[in-house]
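Example with several molecule types.
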Amino acid sequence: MAVVLILVILAVGSVVFHLLSPWWWTPIASNWSYIDNTIIITFWITGFVFVAVVLFVAYCVLRFRHRPGNRAAYEPENKKLEVWLASVTTIGVAAMLAPGLFVWNQFVTVPTDATEVEVVGQQWLWSFRLPGADAKLGTSETRAIGDGNALGVNPNDPNGLDDIIIEGGELHLPVGKPVKMLLRSVDVLHDFYVPEFRAKMDMVPGIVTYFWFTPTRTGTFEVLCAELCGTGHPQMRGTVVVDSEADYQTWLQEQQTFTQLLAASKEQKTATASTASSLK
Ligand SMILES: [Cu+2]
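Resulting structure tokens for the full complex:
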């Protein structure tokens, strides 16, 4: 009897806990409400199956408990039951997987008017690159990483010279405009994740991964790394600020281009060299 009671409490308690739990998603700030819908469908199906199985076990424990003189019947095969179980399971699994396929198709189909933004992960810092006035990102190469070029932007590619570089700072995005996030890592696996955007993707050294989204409300959002990447992984935080168009333009004017960064690092080098020679 105690076992039956525990099983019933487990089933009812799980449902009540799920409904009353304060640990729910952060309020959404992107177009990806479909992601939430697929998770809710999965919750409903797995929740229903969980409660049904646990209550069925409780029923069996009660109904078929040991009584003096009772004997168990041996029935190794039951065609009808097997057909039933197999078809219901198939429908359940298909209902959980099918919506995901539709959403995945949208997730990887980037709208043609999306602006490209590059995110570069490294232990344990987020950097960003925006296309400059030409609206084109220059190519990049890990071998080009050096003084004044922490992201390895190709200095021989004219498209990259006006790119805006944000090393370890805040990324700003204009509200309501689709963006294609190009994801790169210069060392190990990382994963760019802003919970409110409901989108994330692994960053793999040597390849460029991507996802797209449209920010739907202004605000300041925290970037998390969702791939264990070393001892500093929990501290690998960043900030994305979604601005109104006017605020975004103001912020954009204050950022440095790749050309400016290269010039600044060259100046610094000359200054250090002349200090060194005057000390001799
Ligand atoms: Cu990381």
